[in-house]
Amino acid sequence: QLQLQESGPGLVKPSETLSLTCTVSGGSISSSSYYWGWIRQPPGKGLEWIGSIYYSGSTYYNPSLKSRVTISVDTSKNQFSLKLSSVTAADTAVYYCAREQFPNWFDPWGQGTLVTVSS
Amino acid sequence: QSVLTQPPSVSAAPGQKVTISCSGSSSNIGNNYVSWYQQLPGTAPKLLIYENNKRPSGIPDRFSGSKSGTSATLGITGLQTGDEADYYCGTWDSSLNWVFGGGTKLTVL
Q1: Mean of the pLDDT values across residues B66-80?
Q2: How many other CB atoms are found less than 10 A from the CB of residue B16?
């Protein structure tokens, strides 16, 4: 059974870079059928897609976040990572990683990790 | 403001049926598959419906999806208290962006 688990700091200072890692277990991140995505959810609000990556390293990002986002993959560790630079309080959210069948669906999702941007 | 429009809330009694709408445009729903996600309180979203009307393994047939033009609908029959959750629709948009609805809170009275 495929499982995804997010990890990283729960508190980031304004103007710094948010860094999270998603570890995939129960399956290979190098599957040719899927992308791997990041989605976030501000407290009490809806879902916002951040970006996705293929095991080869090919990426695509939300145009509204593209200038601040970098997603990378480490197939040897079965992990993919998110970096979001120059964060502000508006970036406070629960961050989820998920397997993506482009452009059809996300499943499964990780449990999510809350990242708070505050000094 | 979300690209896809959902009603903020719906409610119905146990055993009844409810529908949740998701309205978009030709740049998203009109030309792409719609998926639906259930988010129980305090948990991650879970895929409920994909490719407009297909159910993943393990999802009961009480849940159904449909699409017509630039709108999609999620239907839930035989409502149970355990169905109380937020429901989100999602699809790909021609602006090269995944888009989601603002979410609908289902209350089972």
Answers
A1: 97
A2: 13
Amino acid making up residue B76 = I
Name the 3-class secondary structure at A89: helix
> Across the interface, do A47 and B45 touch by the CB < 8 Å criterion?
yes
Strands annotated E in B13-84: 18-23, 34-39, 46-49, 63-68, 71-76
Closest residue to A104, CB basis, from B33, B43, B102 = B33
CB contact at 8 A, B100 and A47: yes
pLDDT at A114: 98
Q: Tell if the CB–CB gap between A46 and B101 is shorter than 8 Å.
A: yes
Burial class (CB within 10 angstroms; exposed 0-12, middle 13-18, buried 19+) of B33: buried
**CA A13 to centroid of chain Cα atoms:** 19
A106·B33 Cβ contact <8 A: no
d(CA A18, CA B75): 38
Q: How far is A108 from A34, CA to CA, in rounded Å? A: 12
Dist. CA B17–CA B62, nearest whole Å:
9
pLDDT digits (tens, 9 = 90+) for B35-48: 999 999 999 999 99
The residue type of B34 is V
Distance separating alpha carbons of residues B49 and B59, to the nearest angstrom: 8
Contact B57, B42 (CB under 8 A): no
Q: Could you tell me the pLDDT band of residue B89, with boundaries at 50, 70 and 90? A: very high
Residues, chain B, total? 109
